[in-house]
Structures are given as C-alpha cells and as structure tokens.
Amino acid sequence: MERWDEIERYFEGEMNEEETRIFEYNIQSDELLRADVKDYEKSILLLKKKYNSEDRRLALLKTLKEEGKKHFVEKKTKVVPFKKALLSVAAVAAIVLFGTYFLNNGSLYEEYESHESVSVQLKGGQDEGLIVAVENFNTNQYDDAVIGFENYLMEHPKDLQILKALGISYLEINELEKAINVFENNDFKGSVFEHDAQWYEALTYLKMRDENKCVLVLKKIVKGTPYYKQAQDLLDDIQ
Amino acid sequence: MQHKDHRYITALIENDTVLIKEIYDKFSPKIKNYVLSNSGSMSEAKDIFQEGLISIFSKATNSDFVLTCPFEAYLFMICRSKWLNVLRSSKKRKETNVDLEGFNSVEAECQCEEALLTEERLSFLERKMNALDTSCVKLLKLSWSGVSMDEVANKLGLTYAYVRKKKSLCKSKLIELIRTDNDYNKYLE
Question: Is the Cβ pair B171, A44 closer than 8 Å?
Fold first, then answer.
C-alpha cells in the first residue's frame, strides 16, 4: 500500500529533488517497482485525468448535442411534386400529378425509446439538489439531471427510483456504458424496478447497436411482466 | 510534428463553440454520407459523429496528445471504426460503400487506433471502479475531481487522516481488481 502512495507522490510532483532522484534510480533497478509504476500510469493516472475533466466533458457534450441537432436533420417526410404535361388537342390541357414518398430513416431504437410514462415523483422533505435534478429530468434536461442525481446517489446509493432515473438520463445523453452499469446493478433484482431495469438495459444495448446483447436481455423479460409485450415485439423486429 | 488542424483538438478541450460549429460545418457531411450509405440512419450518423468527437476529447485530455495528420482523416477513421463495430454486431447490416480517398494515411490510422485503445482502456477501468464498494467509488471520484483532500474529508464528514488512509486502501484494491482481471493484458500491456 505504501508503495502506491510513493508512486502517487512521484506523479503528483510531491517529492523533493533528492527523493525524485532516488525514486527514479529505484525504477531503473527494481523490476517490480517498474511494473507498478507502469500499471499506475496506465490505470490510476488515466482515471484521475478522466474524472478531473468530467465537467468539461459534460459541457462539450451539451455543445455537441446542440450542433448535432442542427446538422443531422431527419427528413421524415419528403413531398416530391412532379408535373407531367400530357398531349392535348387544344394545347391547353395539362394534368398535374403529385407523388409522395416517405423516407424512413428512423432506427429501431427511436421506435421503442418513448418514455413519456417515466417521471419521478418525490415525497416531501427532500433535499434541494434532488428536487432540481428531478425537475430537470421531468423536463428532459438530462445533462443537468445527471449531475444532481449523481451527487444525491453518493449519499443515498439505495434509492432505486433515482438510480433508475439516472440510468435513463445516461441513456438519453449517450453515456451508454454508464447506463449499462446502472441497469446491471444487483440492487434492482427482486425490487419493484427490476423489470424497468431489464427493459432499459435492453434499450441501451439497442442504442449501442449491440443486437446480440439486446436480444439476450430481452429474452430474460418473462411473460406476465409489464414489458413482456414490447420485448417480444422488439425481438421480432430484430430477428 | 503538430498539424495545423490541432486547433480543432484545442477547440474540443476548451469547448470553443465557434470552432466546434466549424467542425460540424466542414466535416459532418462526409461522415453523415458514409453512415447513411452503409445501412445507417440519420440519428445513428449523428451519434457516431458525436461519439467520434468525444473519443478525440478523451484522448486529448488523458495524454499529451499532438495531432500529426489532418483532422478530417483522423475523425473519419475513428467514426468509421465505430460504425464498423456497430455493423459487426448486426447480422443484417454491413459496409457496402466506402470512399477512403485522401483518408487512408498510416498516420491517421495510427492516431485513430491509439484513441480507440484509450477509450477501451478507460471503459475497462471504469468497470473495475464500479466493482469497488460504494464508499471507495465515492471517495476516489471526489478526490480525483480536483477537490483537495481537506475538502473531500469535509464533504464526506470524515477526518483527514481517515480519508487519506481509506483512499490508499481503495487505490490498492482497485489495482488488485485490475491486475486479476482476465482482460488485464489486453488493456494494460
């Protein structure tokens, strides 16, 4: 354990010149220390940099989502008018025909993603941060909701209603690995949110376009549970 | 040598909205066209483009990254790799239409592979983080978010000495989890 603290001090620049010189000498001569330093650099240091830039990443994600909406516009319906003049004896008659065709670019995920029914109801006496996060969630401001939910869950990790809402928020903002981690949480098993977690896990894999894993999760949704019908429909669509 | 397009990397790191708009204006049509002409939808094209930019951000903030090839080639390679992963997981869809002209440089491919490797490594590390107990996850995330150990202790209602000791234990446990995972060699070697 002290070894990791020493390595941390080295990377944090907390060693004085003499300590640094000795430590670097030891790295050269001690194979085990060399391996530890390498692992530390590739794991702890990487995670640390990641969490240190988390706020910036979320801010960037917000900008990208806004730009994305402007540059990737779904052309759901396109009306193509065309005119075809026909031969006319009096040289006046013309018939205009209109044709319409529909371009369907929607993915399966979009077809099944609807969660109008998902909203979080709070009892009285909740902390202010959570109230704001829930308001953000209920008004589809998922980026902001995530921050509030994460903070709240640090203190209340067993609040499954909020955990589910956090998972859905991750799903919405494309933090798909995180969403999977949430929906795979063992605490959902046997709880009233078990079926919701299964369904949203399947949807997350669908959004990840990992159809194999999506199918595996859908097959776990048993008859008689609220998501059975839509799970079967989705299975049919995939297969 | 740093490519002149490195300014786009800086723009992502600094969330420069003007340059990010330029990135979308200049580079999104090619990637949109690639995804749409290879069994993808508009929404999937949007996600792939966004994920590509986030991958670049992650790479750039986690290392001393220097762009040495044109940004468009780099971004296209990353987005294409991501889309090929999607196609591989689907039985019905495959890549049928790709124009790599001007994009198939060794430099762009290498930088693309590095970015994707960093992303996969981070995803593996996060899975290991989440296997720790909640108090460890909470403490490590807080202490790595730029908050001082004094503040961490205050926020968690613990003493400074305890928090330091606990952090050390948690780190130790995390490294043990990483080293004993079957995928250790794949992601850390």
Answer: yes
- Choose the closest CB to B122 out of A50, A61, A72: A50
What is the chain A residue with the closest CA to B17? A63
Distances (CA, A) of B62 to B59, B114, B178: 5, 12, 19
Query: Which among A53, A107, A209 has CB closest to B89?
Result: A209
The residue ranges of every structural domain in chain B are 6-121, 131-188
Contact A37, A27 (CB under 8 A): yes
**What's the residue count for chain B?**
189
pLDDT-based confidence at residue A141 (cuts at 50, 70, 90): confident
Q: Which residues pair with A77 in a beta bridge?
A: A102
Q: Which CATH number fits domain B131-188: 1.10.357, 3.30.420, 1.10.10, 2.60.120?
A: 1.10.10
The model's pLDDT over B49-78, given as tens digits with 9 standing for 90+, comes to 999 999 999 999 988 889 988 899 999 999
Q: Is pLDDT above 50 for B163?
A: yes
pLDDT tens digit sequence for A110-136: 778 765 545 666 666 667 778 888 888
